[in-house]
Write a structure and sequence with these properties.
With 315 residues, the protein is α+β, with helices and mostly antiparallel strands. Helices cover 44% and strands 17% of the residues.
């Protein structure tokens, strides 16, 4: 695969990130670490091949990555992430330390930056990697980093695999972006549904405000006629009616804003990279509500300026 000109790097792994397939899990023992009585020392891990970290773009804080020399004839090794290093070797360099997995001692040869393994919302947790060549599996995933659009290489990748063995073919070709979209489909559907409900709520609010303003104008026709008879011009009446409508809107925004601040913590699990109390989000919602309020008040206010003062006073 690396011989294809458009391929920057390629690596095998047993489980891809953001997958519905669970990672390997095992109780572990860390040389020199004495856990509290109520702590179960365990961690998820993945079996990966050489160049995995370069292909996935996961930097190594220290140490080295796996090479082809890390096979079944070599001493067992592992690479831990920074969270695992900080928990089990606090204040110390984990390189060269030992960790036991399934009655097999491994030497730590590298420390990788914390990554996202299942979803974007997960908290940093201990995770480690072992060489695939020391823990062979029949079914693996081939990760490929390309210099051009990934879809353009799908046919070439299939040809390379078929050239190795005519009975082999890629089970599925998918980009990491598509994999993430699949994993987050439930959250995205929930956000879309909430957005639709929010739009309907804004529409109903605008219709309700329009009804209130129309009723208020009809009830205050005599007052408006008197003001016009006393010399109030159309612009002044327009401002008066608009001010009443916006005052009602301001009260609703204050109450709704307080309720939103209290309830936003329930939506935090749907958001990534955005605080539930993000000022920009609240500012945008405020702008939408003000525009809806202006639109709802405009027609009743315009009708108020068209009031015939003589007819209004007579009625």
């Amino acid at each position: 695969m690396r011989a294809i000109p458009s391929v920057r790097s390629a690596a095998y792994a047993r489980i891809p990130p953001f997958s519905f397939v669970t990672y390997s899990w095992a109780p572990i023992a860390v040389d020199g670490y004495v856990p509290p009585p109520d702590e179960q020392v365990a961690a998820d891990y993945d079996e990966v091949g050489p160049d995995y970290f370069e292909t996935l773009g996961i930097p190594l804080s220290s140490g080295r990555g796996f090479t082809r020399a890390d096979d079944q004839d070599a001493a067992p090794v592992a690479i831990v992430n920074e969270t695992m290093a900080a928990r089990y070797w606090p204040g110390a360099d984990p390189l060269g330390a030992r960790l036991r997995v399934k009655d097999r001692w491994m030497r730590v040869v590298g420390v990788a930056r914390v990554s996202k393994y299942r979803n974007f919302l997960e908290v940093p947790r201990p995770f480690f990697y072992v060489p695939l060549r020391q823990n062979f599996f029949r079914q693996v995933v081939l990760h490929v980093r390309t210099r051009e659009a990934p879809r353009a290489l799908a046919a070439a990748l299939g040809q390379q695999i078929h050239a190795l063995d005519p009975s082999l073919a890629p089970q599925q070709v998918i980009t990491l972006r598509e994999q993430v979209d699949r994993m987050t489909s439930a959250q995205r559907i929930a956000v879309v549904i909430l957005g639709i409900f929010g739009g309907v709520a804004v529409l109903l609010s605008a219709i309700g405000l329009y009804g209130v303003m129309s009723y208020s104008v009809s009830q205050g026709t005599r007052e408006l006629g008197l003001r016009m008879a006393l010399g109030a011009d159309a612009a002044r009446l327009l401002r008066l009616v608009m001010a009443k409508g916006l005052a009602v809107t301001a009260g609703g925004i204050v109450v709704g804003g307080v309720a939103a601040l209290v309830s936003t913590r329930l939506l935090g699990y749907l958001l990534y990279g955005v605080s539930p109390r993000d000022p920009l989000a609240f500012g945008s919602a405020l702008a939408v509500m003000m525009i809806a309020a202006l639109a709802a008040c405009l027609l009743p206010a315009w009708r108020a300026t068209r009031t015939d003062p003589i007819r209004a006073l007579r009625d």
